[in-house]
Amino acid sequence: MDKFRIMVQFLQANQESFMNGICGIMALASAQMYSSFEFTCPCLPAYNYAYGIGILIVPPIWFFLLGYVLNNNISVLTEEWKRPMGKRRKDPAVLRYMFSSMTQRALIAPVVWIAVTLMDGKSFLCAFSATSDLSEFLNETYKSLSKNDVQKLQAMIPCEDVFDGHHIISRDAAIRYIRCFSQACGWTFLMIITIVAFLVRAIRPCFTQAAFLKTKYWSHYIDTERKLFDEMCKEHAKSFAKVCIQQYFESISGEIVPQLPTPIKKGKGNKDEDGEKQKSDEEKLLGIRKEDDMNKVLWNWHTCKPPLLITKRAEDMNGHARLDTHSFSDERHTQKPMKKTAVAYYSKV
User: Fold this and answer.
1) Coiled-coil segments, which residues (predicted)?
2) Strand pairing partners for 138?
C-alpha cells in the first residue's frame, strides 16, 4: 500500500512527464493496433469508399477524444470555464493555454495513426480503387464492358480471393499505383505536420515571453490549487471523522460503564499520546465543526472563489514590525547612557 501511495504521489508530482509518456504509449498503441488490425475491404463500389475513409478518420477521432479523457486537466479546464465569477476573474489566455496544451498532446496518437495508415495504403486502396482512373492498366477488352461493370471490377482489386479479372486489368500494377499515391499523401501529411510544429516552436519566442510565462504560471496554479484543496478536504474529513467517532465511543462508554477515576501517571516527561493526537485532530478541523458550516465552505469555494491576495497579512505584520523597530530605535536613542562601573570579585581561596 505504501509503495502504491508513493507511486501515486510521484505521478502527481510529475504529471507533465507522465502525460507525455501516456501520449507516447498511445501513439505506439495506435501503430500496434493498426498492424494487428484485420483489414477486410467489402470490395463493393457502394461501400469501399465509406469503409476506407472510415478506417482513416474514425480511429483518429477516438484516439483524440481518448487523449482528452486521460488528461486530468480537462476537468480543471471545464471547472475554470464554467465556474461563477465570484471574487476572482477568469483569464481567457490561461484557458486558451490549457486547451492548446491538452490538444497538442491529444493529437499525437491520431497523427501517428493517419501516417501509418497512409504509408501502408490498404485503406486508401479500398477507398479509391473503384473511382480511380486505371485506364492505363486495362487491356482492350474493357471497352466492351459498361461503366458499372468496370467499377465493380476495380472495386474487387483489394480482395485477392474474389478478384477474377486478371485478363482485363493488371491487379498488381493497379495496387502499386494506388499505394504509391497513398504513400505520397502520407509523406505530404508528415511534412505539413512537421512544418506546422516547427513554425509553432520557432514563432513562439518572437512574441512577448512575459504573457506566455504568466499564462503558464496561472495554469499550473489552477491545477495545483485544485490538488491542494482536495488534499485539505481529505485531511479535514479524516480528522472530522476521527473526532466524531472518538466522541461517540466516549459517550457510549460513559453510558454503559460508570466512569472511574483514571490513575494519574507519575513521572517526569511522560506525555499522553492520545491527547496529543486528539489535539492535532482538533487543530486540523480549523474551527469547522458542523456539517452546515462545512457545506457552506464548500459551496462558497465553488460559487465565490476568494481573490488571489495574500499580502494583506504580510503587510500588517511588516507594518507592526516596522513600528516595533522604530519604537525600539527611538527608545534606544532616547535612553540615557548608563554609567559603566567596574566590579571586582575576590576569591577566598
Assistant:
1) none
2) 169
115 grid coordinates: 501516417
Q: Which of left, alpha, beta for 173 (phi over 0: left; psi -120 to 50: alpha)?
A: alpha
- The secondary structure of the chain, three-state, reads CHHHHHHHHHHHHCHHHHHHHHHHHHHHHHHHHHHHCCCCCCCCCCCHHHHHHHHHHHHHHHHHHHHHHHCCHHHHHHHHHHCCCCCCCCCHHHHHHHHHHHHHHHCHHHHHHHHHHHHHCHHHHHHHCCCCCCHHHECHHHHHCCHHHHHHHHHCCCCCCCCCCCCCECHHHHHHHHHHHHHHHHHHHHHHHHHHHHHHHHHHHHCCHHHHHHHHHHHHHHHHHHHHHHHHHHHHHHHHHHHHHHHHHHHHHHHHCCCCCCCCCCCCCCCCHHHHHHHHHHHHCCCCCCHHHHHHHHHHHHHCCCCCCCCHHHHHHHHHHHHHHHHHHHHHHHCCCCCCCCCCCCCCC
Contact 139, 168 (CB under 8 A): yes
Cα 291 from chain centroid (whole Å): 32
pLDDT at residue 277, rounded to an integer: 59
Residue 181, Cβ density class (10 Å: 0-12 exposed, 13-18 middle, ≥19 buried): middle
Task: Output the pLDDT for position 289.
Answer: 87
Q: What is the mean pLDDT of residues 330-343?
A: 46
Reading the block at residue 97, the C-alpha cell is 493555454
Report how far residue 67's alpha carbon sits from residue 75's, in angstroms, rounded to the nearest whole number. 13
Give pLDDT, residue 312: 56
pLDDT of residue 64: 92
Over residues 10-40, the pLDDT tens digits come to: 444 455 555 556 666 777 777 677 777 778 8
